[in-house]
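re the bet — no i am not wrong, look at it urself. input seq straight from the record:
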Amino acid sequence: MIVFSMYMYQYIHVSSKSAKTHRISDFVHLSGLKEIFPTMYTALSIAVTLPVSSASPERAFSKLKLVKTRLRSTMSEDRLEALMIMACELDVQIDTECVIKYFASNSSVLAKLLT
């Protein structure tokens, strides 16, 4: 048992808590302890997938304050969701030609104007 404890300590000894949790989860999975301690493995799996910081949700709520102003408080949920996706995902490249063709194919009026 002492040898096992020393091996586990050497395997998981890292400075970051999130990296340590990930290494413990890997160790439990690779050493076959997953079958012996299924509840512990489930708890470790959940701990590994949890966000380390709250920066992402805080950033999203900050964008929400910018998107949903007092003047826009009566918009539908679908529109608000679409605006939030556009505001939060600025790094996604959009092919404007593809978007124009899509809307033109759905509307005969737009198809005449855009072609």
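see?? The helical segments are 2-12, 17-30, 33-36, 38-49, 55-67, 77-88, 96-106, 108-114. told u. also The two ends are 76 Å apart (CA to CA). so pay up
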